[in-house]
Amino acid sequence: MSTIMHRKPKPSPAERTTAHKSSRNASAFPSKRLARRYWILLSLFLSGGLLCSLGLLLYNNPVPVQSPSFWPVVERRITAIVTMAIAALCQSLATVAFHSVTNNRIITPSLLGFDALYSTIQTSMIFFFGAGALIGFSGTGAFLTQVGLMLVMSLLLYGWLLSGKYADLQLMLLIGIILGTGLNSLASFMRRMLDPSEFDILQARLFGSVTNADAAYFPIVIPVVLIVSILLFLSANRLNVIALGKDVATSFGVNHRRSVIYVLILISLLMSMSTALIGPLTFFGFLVATLSYQVASTYDHKYVLPMAFSIGFLVLTSAYFFMYHIFNAPSVVSVIIELFGGLIFLTVLLRKRSL
Amino acid sequence: MIKLTQVKKTYSDHVQIGPLELEIPQAGLTALIGPNGAGKSTTLMMIGRLLHLDEGQIQVAGLDVSSTKSKDLAKILTILRQENHFVTRLTVRQLVGFGRFPYSQGRMTPDDEAITSKYIDFLDLTPLENRYLDELSGGQRQRAYVAMVLCQETDYVLLDEPLNNLDIARSVQMMGYLRHVADELGRTIITVLHDINFAAKYADHICAMKHGQIAAFGTVQEIMVADTLSDIFETDLEIMDGPYGPIAVY
């Protein structure tokens, strides 16, 4: 290695291809041990999530199994579990894809202003039209309005990426943050003028919670979320390259700008669905994505995305199971998730070795 | 052949690159030299379609880089920038394997794997191939990046300061590899170099830039002239005859 010779004599590469063995390959996992670890953990998390959902369905059911009213209770609980699966899918996939597209693993797609817009819409409803209007602001129409507004806002932001000279992802994020902060302060200004009782009603909506969800939205949400997730999964190979950065991706023949906008649109669909369905979950996506990078130990999105979903589902179902049935404190679930997420955020930042 | 016609890039009223007129012949190693801010990297990035050009036309092997599909260009030319930082954690093997992306679109065939092995072996990375990039020294990492772009098997390879942060031994080694790539694989290499003597020793052609213009283009013998280089670098330097050709002393 250290021979300092001019024109180091060596066999030409063509002669040395014989050195290639089929055992040498650039698979997603550098070793068999890591691959095995991945599959074991993935099945562990998935079964953990299923176990917790089973627990949520059946545990502590006020009516005995033999009773005819046992199943209606279960059916109601199924809505909550489907909501958790949707939220886990949306938040985890959107965050992982967002990290890869922005080449930055310490931000969340909420930076594009989804949460801020959601809280502004909710707050202005109660501010301008009173508590009755906010309670009445539900149903498919209200849901679609919110999704539509969030999509329009994010698409306007992405338009920035198409605009000639200052088209820049970082700049777009900055503008998203500024817009989000502006909306948030507008909302908090309005909140200051509310009655305490109105504020209380509002507060319940502003914490992400599966109880906010209504099964009436499922016929819209489930197909959209499933299709978008499949599209995102199909872009896994492209995401792998985009994660290497704009220059490398371009050099490999990927149309960087077009791919980024495509993925960002998928992300907004997921984020707006999830936010309109259950409300803001700021740290949840980040928490799940960060954990899945640590656990999956591969760059390949084909593996990271399912891992992120399974962790997200496990976190949500276990948090709800424990809070509802063990600690009897149903309303603090999102607080717990956010607290947990915040702590993980700090730990990761402090020992940022392999973020 | 790479052909630049009236290429212009304007950053502001005071900072402008071009108009550039240049023809870089096929095969061999061409070194881009010049003082800081001369526009070497900008020119390289415009050829590599990483930077949009404001006016003019760049043709690589007869294809216009602004209008040809990026996908098709990826099989003809590749570019490696000076700074590479990845958020994902990759092994050497995975990184080099990415070079096959224009052909495999992420689904590696046995042929792609064999080609990947070939370039890992070529750059003497075989014992390191399952190591993560963050476990390598700067020189080893640089070799892995070069292996990645070579693995793309393009006729034209553009490198922006591949010797950046390498010690003398690693620099000599790296230039040896590049020379081999040019001679034995028949690739055309265009590289930005800061050390004139490296350019003189290893390049076939030298393109000198200054103030956003091409100051001189020619063979090593034509460019390694005391007056020309003193003028380009605004420093007094002399050319001596060394054992391997002309040497600049400054």
Task: Report a brief summary of the structure.
By secondary structure, chain A is mainly α. Chain A contains 13 helices and no strands. Chain B has helices at residues 40-47, 70-73, 92-98, 101-104, 110-122, 138-151, 168-184, 196-202, 220-223, 226-233; strands at 2-10, 16-24, 28-33, 55-60, 63-64, 77-80, 156-160, 188-192, 205-210, 213-219, 238-242, 245-249.
Number of H- or I-type helical stretches of chain B = 10
Shape annotation of chain B: globular
Shape of chain A: globular
Q: How far is the N terminus from the C terminus of chain A?
A: 32 Å
Poorly predicted segments of chain A? 1-18
Structural class of chain A: mainly alpha
**Spatial order of strands in the largest sheet of chain B:** 6-7-8-3-9-10
Radius of gyration computed on alpha carbons of chain B: 18 Å
Distance between the termini of chain B: 33 Å
Q: Can you count the beta strands of chain B? A: 12
Helix content of chain A: over 70%
Mean pLDDT of chain A: 81
**Residue share in β-strands of chain B:** 25-35%
Total number of helical segments of chain A? Answer: 13
Topology order of chain B in helix (H) and strand (E) letters:
EEEHEEHEHHHHEHEHEEHHEE
